[in-house]
Amino acid sequence: GDNYSTWFRSMQMALRAKNKLGFVDGSISKPVSTSPTFHQWVRVNDMVTSWILHSITSDLASSIIYSESAYEIWTDLKERFSQPNVTKIFEIKQAISTWKQENLSVTTYFTHLKSLWDELATYSTFPTCT
After folding, report:
1. How far is CA 101 from the centre of its chain?
2. C-alpha to C-alpha distance for 21 and 15, rounded to whole angstroms
3. Taking burial as the number of CB atoms within 10 A of a residue's CB, which of 13, 52, 113, 120 is the most buried?
4. Where would I find the Retrotransposon Copia-like N-terminal domain in this sequence (predicted)?
C-alpha cells in the first residue's frame, strides 16, 4: 500500500516496454473462446498475471490469485491502493520544504529534491471535463 505509486509506475513502464500494457489497461480484451487468438490471449494474460503476482507481497498475491484476468487484478489493486493518501502527500510536501543542501553537492541535492517532486506528482489528480 505505501509504495503503490512507485510500483504502479515501474510496472506500467515494464509492461509498456514488453508491449503488454493493453492486458492491464483494458485495451486488449479477452476474445471469445472460438476465436483463433483465444489461446494466445490466455497464454499472454497468464504471463502478465504471473509478472504482477511475483511483484507484490505473498499476502496480497493470495487475495487476488483467483482473478480471471490481469486486467481484473490491475483494477483491483488500483481501487485498493491508488486513493489519494493525504498523510503521504503531507509527508512529501514537508520533506520538500525542509530539504537542505548543507554539505551535499548540487547534483545530489537536486536529484533527491526532484525525486520528491516526482513522487508528489504521482498523487496529483487532474479534474476531467465533462
Report:
1. 31
2. 5
3. 52
4. 1-31
Rounded Cα gap, residues 74 and 82, in angstroms: 11
User: What 3 state SS string does 14-63 have?
Assistant: HHHHCCCCHHHHCCCCCCCCCCCCHHHHHHHHHHHHHHHHCCCCHHHHHC
Task: Report the alpha-carbon distance of residue 36 to residue 43 in Å, rounded.
Answer: 13
Whole-model pTM: value is: 0.68
Q: How far is the CA of 92 from the CAs of 33, 57, 66, 107, 115, in angstroms?
A: 48, 24, 35, 20, 10
> Are residues 68 and 100 both part of a single domain?
no
Q: List, for residues 59-97, the tens digit of each pLDDT value.
A: 999 999 999 999 999 999 998 887 667 777 888 899 999
pLDDT in tens, 36-45: 999 999 999 9
Q: Tell me: do 9 and 63 sit in the same domain.
A: yes
